[in-house]
Amino acid sequence: MDVRTDMLSRLGNRSxxxxxEQPFYIDPEYFKVDMELIWYRDWLFVxxxxxxxxxxxxxxxxxxxxPIVIVRDQKGDINAFHNSxxxxxxxxxxxxxxxxxKLVCPYHQWTYELDGKLLFARQMADGFDKSxxxxxxxxCESVGGYIFICLAKEPSDFAxxxxxxxxxxxPHRLSEAKVAFESTIIEKGNWKxxxxxxxxxxHCAANHPELCKTLSEAPGLVGIDGDPxxxxxxxxxxxxxxxxxxHIDPAGQYRATRAPLLRDALSYTLTGRRAVRKxxxxxxxxxxxxxxxxxxxxxxxxxxLVDQAVSFRVIPISATETAVTTKWLVHKDxxxxxxxxxxxxxxxxxxxxxxxxxxxxxxxxxxxxxxxxPGPYSAVHEExxxxxxxxxxxxxxxxxxxxxxxxxxxx
Length: 411
Description:
Layout (H helix, E strand, L loop, with lengths): L2 H11 L9 H4 L1 H12 L4 E5 L8 E7 L2 E7 L5 E5 L14 E3 L3 E2 L6 E2 L5 E3 L16 E7 L2 E5 L8 H11 L8 E10 L3 H8 L5 H4 L20 H11 L8 E2 L5 E6 L31 E6 L3 E5 L4 E10 L2 E10 L11 H26 L15 H19 L10
Helix pairs in contact: 1-9, 5-8, 5-9
């Protein structure tokens, strides 16, 4: 039985409300199929507009086997390219981020415009046609200050995602913010374990003392049960032009809602007080907006507050390793040491990330046991993981069945 048939069989026989079988979390062949049928075909969050505010500014990201560079050109457009020289394949941009008038391959100095066109290739034979050797483009879209890419040859339409998420994000003017700090940690667990842990707070009280000072672990936090406190919060936010009511994509791939923090908390700090004196956006007149909680499978969840935004990017490395990058955004004019203390800004999520890393790694360690078998989620507290696993099964299932959907169908 080949791996796709095996995956289909296990998904078809799985018990609703239970975790996945062991191979989905540890098997390298299952992981390769995940990469081919999800990560190389769907829209992925890679970074923020404000990180490449000026023409020539760029950053790079590695998605599985594919090095990618994202750059702003002279027209102000954001472009994404395969970060592989059309000469002999060397990476063109080797730094995580930078500023460049042109993109120059360090190997033989082939030089590309910021729009990907090959400008200069020295000492090539007569008749060499530069127009045929520009950098290969990658589909790239931006919404509300968030940059997404898609590696597929024929990307799905991004318009529904933009239409749904744009109204929630736009008032926060994140394209005009700045990244105050970023960190990347490697969690020794499968990307699906990272998501399952993120999508519930059943574990929070025992594991996240810092976060629990401001974030509720109540099962109804996402507002799907008509909680009066949630409805009152939505009404107050929407009265000042902040879309807030619960919205989930019919396919379950993304969700947005605005939730209040505990008691009178304004931000994710140990005291609950705001971490940044300046509002994240000059367009938000209300202080008690709680947190805009937004996820987009397979690789980002986010919290946007009155004074800061915290974005999380998930990138699989192997069947048992996942990179999680966290970025803290503040108002572009906020000054460290004057408008905010960096340690206060990042402390809660730095601690929470490290705690989650340990949780995921222990979870992964136990799943490797030959004695592991799928266990039941809590119907009270773990609706989030159940929703994620259901999405995964529905999303990858038809792709596993489609034998005309070949592998490596990327741009």
